[in-house]
Each structure stands twice: as structure tokens, then as C-alpha cells.
Design goal:
Blueprint: H1 3-25, H2 33-41, H3 49-55, E1 61-62, H4 63-70, H5 74-86, E2 91-94, E3 102-105, H6 108-131, H7 134-156
Antiparallel strand pairs: 1-3, 2-3
Helix pairs in contact: 4-5
Length: 157
Amino acid sequence: MTTEAVDTEAREILQLLAQVMACFKRSGAEPPAELRAAAERANLGPRHAAPLLALSFEDELSVSELAERLGLSLPTTSQLVGELSRAGLLERAEDERDRRVTLVRLPDAHREVVQDLLLRQAEPVRRTLERLSPRARADFVAGMRILAEESARTLES
């Protein structure tokens, strides 16, 4: 494949990603009233959604594991966790095996609501994967993994 063809396809992918991200932001998958109320009381913003969604299908994660999953620095993730904890949307606990480690989890009272929100937001992705053949689906996922790796490499340099 020529450099020109790769550049053309890269531009198309960037345009498509921008469209997808805009649709995710305007998806109408609004948080339920109880989450909105907690977020408003604690003055939380859209950046606080990612940790909640990352924890929605995990029993618990360390703050370091959460930072890695989110692609954020440890101090930024710690700040988000603290703000979410003060809002009552996350629980923090000391790891019994290593007291230097802080574990975080969703409170039982919010877990189902957050999981439902994630499922609604993931619906376009699920429908996309359902439309692809198993081979195309595997290639798509492989391509997204490579894009994530290359994006992370860009941040490191």
C-alpha cells in the first residue's frame, strides 16, 4: 500500500472517530437522576464518568490498576477517586494484603445503575460487532488494540 493510500485512510479514520465520539457525547445515555444528583452535589463533571464505567464490571481495582485502564496518571486518578468517594459514588478500602494499596469499588447501591448506563452507551459498539463476520470482528478488535497501543506510545514520547 502506498503512503498516499495510508494517509487517505488515516484521514478517513480520524474523521470517523470524531463522528463516533461526537455521537457518544450526544447519545442521550444520560445518567439516572440519582447519579446526576450526587454529581451535582459534589460538583463532578464528565471526566468523572470514566472511573465509574471502568469499575462497573469489576469487583474492585487498585487505584494504580484504575489509572492504567483509564490511561491517566496516578495523581490524576487518585484525585478523581477522592472526589467520587466524597460524592458517595465510589468506596475506598485498604488492601488487607498490602496496606499501601488502596482498592476502589462501586457501592452496591450504585452498581446496577452504572452498569445499565454502560450497557446503553455500549449498544452502538455491540450492534457494530454483530454486523461483522467473526473474522472481520477479530480484525476490527485487533486494529483497535493496535490503535490504542500506538496512541499510548505517542503520549510516552
